[in-house]
Amino acid sequence: MTIKIYNSLTRKKKTFEPYEANKVRMYVCGPTVYDYIHIGNARPLIFFDVVRRYLERRGYEVRYIVNFTDVDDKLIRKSEETGMSVPEIADTYIAAYFEDAEALGIRRATVHPRVTENMKEIIDFIQGLIDQDLAYESGGDVYFRTAKFPEYGKLSHQNLEELQYGIRIEVDERKADPRDFVLWKAAKPGEIRWDSPWGEGRPGWHIECSAMAKKYLGETIDIHGGGQDLQFPHHECEIAQSEGLHGRTFARYWMHNGYININNEKMSKSLGNGINVKELLKRVRPNVVRFFMLSTHYRNPLNFSDEAIAQAEGAVARIENSVTNLKHRLQTVSRLQIPIAEEQEIQQLERETAAIIERFDQKMSDDFNTPDALSAVFELVSLSNQLLQQEAVDRRQLELLLQAYNELNDVLGILRDDAAEEELLDEEIERLIAERTEARKAKNWKRADEIRDMLQERGIILEDTPQGVRWRRR
């Protein structure tokens, strides 16, 4: 089953063929670490985590790079406002990033490079552009000669003339051409700085990703990802820098996720409607946030609202209840002597489960269609619930379904192992259920009903079955 990816550069789906067989070189633009990450940052981080997981499921060895921009104008302003140094600010918010990312089930990248740790590579890259007359120094700054790269605009599908008249360009007399962009900025008094052949200063934003992609992945990478807002100018400039210097394709596949809206309005600082992840996780479970992010195709806009989060919460609860009930039934089957299923019934379940997993793979192979892939998970929920209604169940059937859940969840990451175990093994709940069972045996119906009501108030629903008591969270 081939994987097809929509390439933002060509605006077409194309069969995925990595530069090197069975290996994927993947770079995703990470956050600027001057504050906590917001849900706009979280969307690409969650989605591309799933892309990486799925490629690994398909047998690829994925080298995955997510950078931190740990020096730029925003960090410098934050430093001036707080009195903290730029490195202190970066360290604070990088630690916060890892805390939030771990909560959201985002696996650490192969490398998380920082701009400040790659200054030599950035300076060498800029010097290489100057040596090819693709860049020039002016007053301690260094600029890229946009006109020297005729394909500039091919990602955003704009030509240089359109860019000149259709895009607001900052007037700067130091530039040879208004469309040129900065590679190195001369330091202002009091700013953090590094030595360079052009004087003390710091990198421009665009150059960092070109230099770090080259260092950690090579001159040509397979997948470059990020939010749609990065397509122009950031990724456009990366192409110009990297392909201008090396004379070869920089990224074989460009992938961009859509914007996030808040209650049908675009999320923006000017509207003051941004939501940071740390605050959101105080009221919404992390796996619910992750499910919500994956419930819309990555290239489409995603609308955040309380109603949408409530729907995601209900959907996740359905999946969690199914898994919890399967595990509980497996414990019961292991404890009790009960009728087991016929061999042909087990084989039938194997075929049905395999068909669901195949449909999951078909959807994920088609440009990582997570909403349709989630529908395969709910097919598994229905199949599990049907089995749980039967009296004769074999442990192999239960293990088969649980294994299928694990297989799909290894890609989607919407079930948290720690949460599932906590729900299943809550000692107090198990003790109360055991007490209720004894009360029923003693025909102490009043106490049995009291316990049922107590558990129901805590969101625990009991179901008396021939195999014993099953419970689930409401």
TrEMBL record:
The family database entries (SUPFAM superfamilies) matched by this protein are listed as:
Anticodon-binding domain of a subclass of class I aminoacyl-tRNA synthetases (SSF47323), Nucleotidylyl transferase (SSF52374)
GO BP annotations, alphabetical order: cysteinyl-tRNA aminoacylation
* Motif 'HIGH' region boundaries: 31-41
Matching entries from Gene3D superfamilies are given as: Cysteine-tRNA ligase, C-terminal anti-codon recognition domain, HUPs
User: What InterPro entries is this protein classified in?
Assistant: Cys-tRNA-ligase (IPR015803), Cys-tRNA-synt_Ia_DALR (IPR015273), Cys-tRNA/MSH_ligase (IPR024909), CysS_C (IPR056411), Rossmann-like_a/b/a_fold (IPR014729), tRNA-synt_1_cat_dom (IPR032678), tRNAsynth_Ia_anticodon-bd (IPR009080)
Q: Which residues form a coiled coil?
A: 415-442
Which keywords does this Swiss-Prot/TrEMBL entry list? Answer: Aminoacyl-tRNA synthetase, ATP-binding, Coiled coil, Cytoplasm, Ligase, Metal-binding, Nucleotide-binding, Protein biosynthesis, Zinc
Q: Which Gene Ontology terms cover its molecular function?
A: ATP binding; cysteine-tRNA ligase activity; zinc ion binding
Name any cofactors this protein relies on.
Zn(2+)
GO CC terms of this entry: cytosol
Protein residues bound to ATP: 269
Span of domain Cysteinyl-tRNA synthetase class Ia DALR: 359-424
How does the cofactor bind to this protein, according to its record?
Binds 1 zinc ion per subunit.
Detail which positions bind Zn(2+): 29, 209, 234, 238
**Motif 'KMSKS' region: chain residues:** 266-270
Per UniProt, subcellular location reads as: Cytoplasm
Q: Which CDD domains match?
A: CysRS_core
Please tell me where this protein is predominantly located: cytoplasm
- Catalytic function, reaction form: tRNA(Cys) + L-cysteine + ATP = L-cysteinyl-tRNA(Cys) + AMP + diphosphate
Asked if the keyword Plastid belongs to this entry, the reply reads no
Task: Write down the EC number.
Answer: 6.1.1.16
Q: How does it assemble?
A: Monomer.
The entry's family comment says: Belongs to the class-I aminoacyl-tRNA synthetase family.
Q: What is the name attached to this protein's record?
A: Cysteine--tRNA ligase
Q: Which organism is it from?
A: Insulibacter thermoxylanivorax
